[in-house]
Amino acid sequence: MCLRQQLKEEEGDSEEGKDACNGGGGSSRSPSFFRRNLFSVVVVLLAILIGLLCKSLTHNLDRPVAAEAVPIWQTSELHWAVRYFVGYLFGIFVPVGQLTKCPTVVDWANTQEADAAKSCITPIRAMVEQGDELVDLNELFDVQAIDIERSGDKDNSPVHVTLLKKKGTSGSDPTAMTNSNSKAPLILYMHGGGFTVRGGKKTLTAQIFGYLQQIGERDDDVDESANSFMDDAVWAIVDYRLAPEHLYPAATEDCLLALNHLVNDMNLGQGGIHISGISAGGTLAMEVTLKSLAMGIDSFYVDEPMVPLPSKDSNQRTWSLDSDSFRRYSYTRIPPVDWLEWSLKAMTGIETNHDVESSIPYGMITTDVDVTGGSIDAAEWKRSFDESNSTLLPRLFLLTANGDPLKDGGLHFKRTYEEVIEQVEAENPNMQPQIKYVESSSGHTSHYIFEQAIFEESMKEWYAEMKKAHLRKLHENGL
After folding, report:
1. How far apart are CA 278 and CA 201, in angstroms?
2. How far apart (Å, rounded) are the C-alpha atoms in residues 337 and 346?
3. Average pLDDT over residues 320-346
4. How distant, in Å, are the alpha carbons of 12, 253, 267, 384 from that of 186?
5. How far apart are CA 114 and CA 107, in angstroms?
6. 234-239 vs 159-166, strand pairing mode
7. What does the pLDDT read at residue 186?
8. Of residues 41 and 413, which shows the higher confidence score?
9. Which whole number is the average pLDDT over 308-322?
10. CA atoms lying within 13 Å on the CB side of residue 447
11. Which whole number is the average pLDDT over 397-425?
12. Are 440 and 454 within 8 A, CB to CB?
């Protein structure tokens, strides 16, 4: 209440006092700018505070960062939840960056050196993988664990594979998934984790395979034999060997061994063979598909693969993670670029030398080992296809993400496979399956949380391809 109004009210003339307070004339003055735009003002101030906080949280990297690098909070193409919040919390909940303190090259025959390396690596792996322990696959699926023996290998440890089927479809013994249903499709899955940890092995399996089964339950196709194919599908998770304990191509060899055993020894996959991998697992999916075309691979799902690119110098046979996306997204923590390079070194046997590396920008460390196994070389695909006697290439489902340092590696592979399709179509009258490409906006693998529409649409299209392949394989095999 203003002073003039108070005085007038004391004199018994409250209405006049109100007019005097409002400026006279009986008309009220409009609210101030701040009162009329209070919500907008609060939002702007909150955005400024968040921006300042995010700026203070910019990832502190100890090597040169490219001038093109943009702090997460300034990356306009990112989903808001990642841009302002999750992008900064990822390192707390998934502390893969701590592995950069560990050695990349270890003399495992030296007990003292090996123990020191394990004491550094093992606790961090346990922290990264603890989220998977919240998922009990036995509650969601019929589960069978198998061990596949290696032959003629110095490492005599078996390859561990976990087989999953829809809950209650394996008969009286849910742990016995033999060749009882040879019509079942097989989906071989390689988890992520930069070849150095087991990332999302159970959580993403539960989400992806579970959703594929939901699609199958809603499929109202009148052809019941096609409608029920997902009920009998087998999802196979490969626990491939990790670096730095095992260098390339150990992980690839394990995945190829697993696929060969499941198809040729267990008689699985006659209703279709599909390869799937996320992050480093996506890279494995590329190479496994390339080297297994003779098996009749029907599709492969490559989600944000870790693809080192070849040197631009044609006289050098070297690869590095350097790319436009790696430079732009150097401040990201999903995943951190220093850990990506640490993983590449661990995978290819490059020892960390801090004195030398201190002046090398992130992404510029090179290796003479192609961890994609030739899968970014169109000539290798064409050669493998010609030797397979196939008439159709497997259909590629590829996903990359804005905010992901690895995005350009995935796009490089897309261009490679487009070239392969063009070469095969030029010599083969059959129309080849076209690439299904999706781009998300929430950073590396975060679309599983923040962009459900992208996830669901991708799964629906992959399901449709599996269904088409299932019918084709049943016809080809006379089943």
Report:
1. 10
2. 14
3. 95
4. 90, 19, 10, 21
5. 6
6. antiparallel
7. 97
8. 413
9. 86
10. 24
11. 97
12. yes
